[in-house]
Amino acid sequence: MMVDFPKITPLGDRAILINFEKIIDEKMLEKVLFYKNLIENSQFKQKVEVVNTYNSLLISYVFAIEDVYSEVLRIKQLVRQANIPKNMNYKIFTLPVCYNEEFGLDLKLISEDKNLKIDEIIKLHTKPFYRIYFTGFLPGFLYLGGLDERLKISRKESPRRSVDKGSVGIGENQTGIYPKNSPGGWQILGKCPVDLFRKNERPPSPFSAGDKIKFEAVSITEYQEIIELIEAGEYKLKVDNYES
Amino acid sequence: MKAEIEVLQPGLYTSIQDLGRYGFQKFGVPQSGVMDRYAMRICNLILGNPQEKSVMEITMQGPQLKFNSPTSVCISGADLSPKLNGQAVSNNEIINLKKNDIIEFGKRKSGFRSYLGISGGFETEKVMESLSWYEGLTDQFRLEKGMKLACSADSFSNSETYSSLKIDSEYISSNAIGVYPGPEFEFLTNTQKNQLFNADFNTDEKSNRMAVQVKEELQNDLQPIITAPVMPGTVQLTPSGKIIILMRDCQTTGGYPRILQLSEYGIQVLSQKLPGDKIKFLKKNYPEF
């Protein structure tokens, strides 16, 4: 069956879904984000919100769409006209992570399973610039791409009942940070002292889809110092701006 | 003195909700908001409030509430035998309250969720532009005994109310849930499709504001999908064949095939179903493109 991408269809009576080819990579993300921006800046008759995942966009309306037919056609028109620009601006955030054994509950397990020394695990985990694809699952939970193949490891067979807020983990080919205490099955390597989601801040999270994250290993003493700075309201996240 | 409601008894699961939280899904924040938008609108219209004022969402067993100043309230949705100082009062009518009056509920007569609107609305904690309670995001997520709820002090705000409004209560006893095909509907077999639209299903005890689960399973060999957007009303099919209908507090993304999408009216009807109630999926179609 031939399908033209992107596929644009209604989803129920108060949303429109745009599906691109089933691909997870940075090029696809750039394409998805380009259309996201284009749609967000177009004229809507009511309040809408556009969210992206790896290869789709959801335009959700607060109320049922009055004339779904015309609205889908309008979006189709918009997407047809557009060209993909070559440049995308993004930020690189450096996030401190303490890979101390007290926090890295599964470091030993990963080390045995992958036949890597703990130092090597930390080296491999702090090397990449991870791309933020989107936020989902929990408020502030970042879907990151770019984990080194050598660190790929299955989730725990039975999830932990509670994983601490800030825990940095690996599940299959994904790595991420738990934004709050929650049950979870990822293998835990360390802990990040920085709050990923603050409900009273605008925006509640500084990270956007398309930005990048770099992890920086810190000692337990540095970790404590960062916590103190955060509590005193004096901590500043390291951010660099880039144009690709 | 501040207008307040004292919670003498919290009821089974009671929370403050408005239309929900919009503009924050890109941070992974659920939409939340009232399960039954129609009942909320009726409460507010009768009271002469703007249609989207926050209301109290009451589940199956109502709370006991004491009002510290005169105001007006209206109850809509499920009929949980509301009482004012021990005397029966009706749904969908203005109830004028004096200082120290007590509203409580009795036997459930119909539906699952009842809504209490108050003149001028609630003035509880606002988080991300919404008063909707959600665990982990707002300080409170359900009513607790002894809690005090701030509400508007301007009572009897409007004499121009819709007391002669024609109210549809039929949806409360309906079992037909209107659904559109979901993004992965086309990958289902004909047998699965027939089963979905012809079989009766029963809602499970595990249901809550996040999702309604269905007891019956659907034979399934569809694999999980690449994590994709979901929203209230999305019907997921798990690899083991479980049918999960996402509701207002659902996450923003999910990895199970999205086989159906409820209409807003479908969500309204489902909101009034008790665990164990029978439901049928009624197929709706999108316009032809």
From TrEMBL, chain A:
UniProt keyword annotations, A-Z: ATP-binding, Hydrolase, Nucleotide-binding
Keyword Zinc-finger applies: no
UniProt-listed InterPro entries: CT_C_D (IPR003833), Cyclophilin-like_dom_sf (IPR029000), PxpB (IPR010016)
UniProt enzyme class: hydrolase
Positions of the Carboxyltransferase domain: 6-207
Residues of the signal peptide: none
SUPFAM superfamilies for the chain: Cyclophilin-like, PH0987 N-terminal domain-like
Annotated EC: 3.5.2.9
Pfam families reported for this sequence: CT_C_D (PF02682)
Keyword Cytoplasm: no
Any one GO molecular function term: 5-oxoprolinase (ATP-hydrolyzing) activity
Cited Gene3D superfamilies: 3.30.1360.40, Cyclophilin-like (2.40.100.10)
PANTHER family: 5-OXOPROLINASE SUBUNIT B (PTHR34698)
Name of the protein in its database record: 5-oxoprolinase subunit PxpB
Organism: Christiangramia lutea
Automatic annotation (TrEMBL), chain B:
Keywords, in A-Z order: ATP-binding, Hydrolase, Nucleotide-binding
Carboxyltransferase domain sequence ranges: 26-289
Keyword flag Nucleotide-binding: yes
Superkingdom of the organism of origin: Bacteria
InterPro entries named among the record's database cross-references: CT_A_B, Cyclophilin-like_dom_sf, PxpC
Any GO MF annotation of the entry: hydrolase activity
Pfam annotation, one family: CT_A_B
Name of the protein in its database record: Biotin-dependent carboxyltransferase family protein
